[in-house]
Amino acid sequence: MVIETTSLLTVDGMISETPLVSVIIVTCDRPAVLRSCLEHVLAQDYPYFEIIVVDNSHFQEKTFSVVHGFPTVHYIRSNPCRVNPGYMRNQGIRQSHGEVLAFIDDDTLVLPGWMEALVEGLRDPQVAGVTGRVDEDLTSVVHTEDIGRLLPDGTLVMNFNSLVPEPVPVSIIYGCNQAVKRNVLQAHGAFDPWYGMAYEDTEIGLRLSKAGYGLRFLPKMQVKHLKAPRPSYVIQRSVNSDLRSRFVSCRSLAYLCVSQYGIRREFLRTSFINLPRSWIGQFLRQPSLKGILKVVVGLSGLIFGYVMAALRKIHFHRPPC
């Protein structure tokens, strides 16, 4: 999808010559990779930035011990029972001071020149947010300009590991490597916690694109995404909430697609033929009560998302300012 720059809104107010960049990192029980993440951010040559770590670890003293070793890093203790990246990022935003808000995960290593690249990309008055190249070990690199968009059938086109040499317009930004102008979020709302563990980063990109702002993929804004494993007790917490996570994920995907494109044949096929067929196949291969509940919960989430999109004029989960 090509975004015509002539139709883009101009962001009110240019960023300053050397804007303060607030780097907000959400973390959960991965102190070792967090340490490496912080070391890479602190090694950046760009002179004006602050780092904010938002922690909802089960054993928060371990994370705090790591952060305490970096005197300039600000630590926010979040609720361990609320596993919600959007909520945590909003906590970081409220404590930040930068004109530019950058977001990475605790297992993201920013490469040299990352911060200069995002600042330079945001100097364009028609660009509200930027994302960049994400290198992952198990993902093959691609050479395409088809990056960062949501298709009518619910497919997310990622390709954030593309080796394109020049910036490319996108309509969604990758949660582990993104930056947005503060005044844009103040005008249009921050991350929406209603989306839970899934699609909160996709939604904010689509919201800004729909409002008429430009988003860009910047090849020089490069990170290494480790996709580090979590401790067993964190995995168990995820397993215990698996049905709820499936409901929220399916609800959010349906809401995004119907809000963006309306009720289209492509997503109806995905929702009520392709996804249920896949879920039922999994159940038949490994029959269990939880397996059939996953089918029921997934379909319930999709239906609920459709209804919420139809009633979006009165929807009650407006993004927080």
Describe the 3D structure.
- There is one protein chain.
- This protein has 10 helices and 11 strands.
- It is α/β, with parallel strands linked by helices and 321 residues long.
- The chain has 2 domains: 5-225, Spore Coat Polysaccharide Biosynthesis Protein SpsA, Chain A; 241-314, no CATH class.
- A hairpin with a 5-residue loop joins strand 7 and strand 8.
- Helix 1 (31-42) packs parallel to helix 2 (60-68), helix 8 runs parallel beside helix 10 (289-310) and helix 9 runs antiparallel to helix 10 (289-310).
- The longest helix has 22 residues, at 289-310.
- It is globular and about 55 Å long.
- The chain starts with 20 loop residues before the first strand and ends in an 11-residue tail after the last helix.
The average pLDDT score comes to: 89
Rg over alpha carbons = 20 Å
Give the helix level as a range of percent: 40-55%
| Helix-strand sequence | EHEHEHEEHEEEEEHHEHHHH
Number of helices: 10
Q: Could you state the CATH homologous superfamily of the largest domain?
A: Spore Coat Polysaccharide Biosynthesis Protein SpsA, Chain A
CATH architecture descriptor text of the largest domain = Alpha-Beta Complex
Structural class: alpha/beta
Q: Note the beta-strand portion.
A: 15-25%
Total number of beta strands? 11
The number of distinct structural domains comes to 2
End-to-end gap:
29 Å
Assembly classification: single chain
CATH topology of the largest domain: Spore Coat Polysaccharide Biosynthesis Protein SpsA, Chain A
| Silhouette | globular
Query: How can the largest sheet be summarized?
Result: 9 strands, mixed
CATH C-level class of the largest domain: Alpha Beta
